[in-house]
Amino acid sequence: MVLSWIITLYTLWQMVQMHEMVPGKRFDRYHELGQHAFGEKLGLYIVVPQQLIVEVGTNIIYMVTGGQSLKKFHDLVCPSCKSIKLSYFIMIFASVHFVLAHLPNFNSLSGISLTAAVMSLAYSTIAWTASATKGVQPDVDYGYEASTTSGIAFNFLNGLGDVAFAYAGHNVVLEIQATIASTPEKPSKGPMWKGVVVAYIVVALCYFPVAFIGYWMFGNSMKENILMSLEKPTWLIAIANMLVVIHVIGGYQIYAMPVFDMIETVLVKKMHFKPSFTLRFIARNVYVAITMFIGICFPFFGGLLGFFGGFAFAPTTYFLPCVMWLSLYKPKMFEFSWWTNWICIVLGVVIMVTTPIGGLRNIILQSKNYEFFS
């Protein structure tokens, strides 16, 4: 986890630096930087599919997370109430996005983004402090959850995918940097890098205590979402789950905004639809509905994290920025920058190739006992 934090902070620094590497030009989209590095057509073919998978995959996982947290909140607040299907809670969560999806741009998401960040820090703090207060469980087991060698290997790969999923800001960092004013005297990379450092400190404060203290308290019995392992104090855990809901509402919109932009660009420029409110309304609502439907059909949080984390997040987060850096800056062979980038590339490719196997196996195992729309 710490190594991934360091590597992804480094690759994020690269992207911030490359945003205005050409005087008088800003690469405001990931694919624009890819086109500059690899060529007009090849850059699109390399970057756009990966970026779309990341953003759509994240939105699907946020649908599942939002629905699960709403259900947990309901069950804690009203334990005597009739049980409601997870599918309905995912629909309730999606209903918010049928409204928020029509916000115009990233600037309009600034308040939502800030709120989401605060909520993330708040519920993470509640999760690890509640775990520490609960104490080490009497039957805690720090061994492998699986009993077979193949099971251990597949779970390890799925875990690597989970870690890869945790660092996903690269896919929207250029779009966010594009909203910052920039002049030759004061380029945007200065304030952007300060923001990235603050964000990564918050990320560390959220992830590390939850992972390490949670494992210390619960061992391998800890559930995929630590808040699902906690019950007491009821009011605090209920609040934490609602904070998760608020956090993923903001996160969904941040990752959906570039997808909306791509969809509308294709509809207008490639399919020659006339730009209109009706087109925008239908396109965005259809996208929200699709991610909701897939989330309802496959609400497997851990498996989805592992699969998408390795398959899509590893390229855009771990090694594509390094490949672009080598292509554009051409550091001398065997010097420190050259070695650093190649190490990141090799690790990223290994994660991309191996971890989806563990995630897919996890999804298959979970789906055996799952009834659709339950």
Automatic annotation (TrEMBL):
Keyword Cell membrane recorded: yes
Membrane topology value: Multi-pass membrane protein
Protein name as it appears in the record: Lysine histidine transporter 1-like isoform X2
Keywords tagged on the record: Amino-acid transport, Auxin signaling pathway, Cell membrane, Membrane, Signal, Symport, Transmembrane, Transmembrane helix, Transport
MF-aspect GO terms: amino acid transmembrane transporter activity; symporter activity
Family: Belongs to the amino acid/polyamine transporter 2 family. Amino acid/auxin permease (AAAP) (TC 2.A.18.1) subfamily.
Transmembrane annotation, as ranges: 42-65, 86-103, 109-128, 196-218, 238-260, 281-301, 307-329, 341-364
Main location: membrane
Any Gene Ontology CC annotation: plasma membrane
Segment forming the signal sequence: 1-18
Cellular compartments annotated: Cell membrane
Domain Amino acid transporter transmembrane: 1-358
